[in-house]
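Below is how a single chain appears once it has passed through the pipeline. First comes the sequence as given, then the structure the pipeline wrote out for it. We keep one example in the README because the format questions we get most often are answered faster by looking than by reading.
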Amino acid sequence: MRIHIASVFVDDQAKALEFYTRVLGFRLKNDVPVGAFRWLTVVSPDAPDGTELLLEPSEHPAVPPFRNALAEDGIPAMSFQVDDIDAQYQRLKALEVVFVQEPTDAGPVRMAVLNDTCGNLIQLVQMKE
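Resulting structure:
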């Protein structure tokens, strides 16, 4: 058994696609119209046939309270692994990405948390050696 698709709820799919591809560096995998929305997935350029991230519309009534509670408590909706968190932090800061937590050591990882501009906090993690 493998994880095929994970999802993150977004306020605006077009804005999310722009952020997740042009800023974070993911690649578009699927863009299929589904009524008023899209089946919109991105993948890591390092694993184009790997796990897909679904940029899912946040229209369901249960989503806003759930996402707001996570954000208010500082809990990331998703976590992405990077090889060099300090380099990614500097690259993303230069692109005016807002971080709510700068790179910090936490046990076996170094992590940072950013705002994805689409209603979510996203954690970046670098495994320590």
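The two ends are 28 Å apart (CA to CA).

See the next section for the split statistics.
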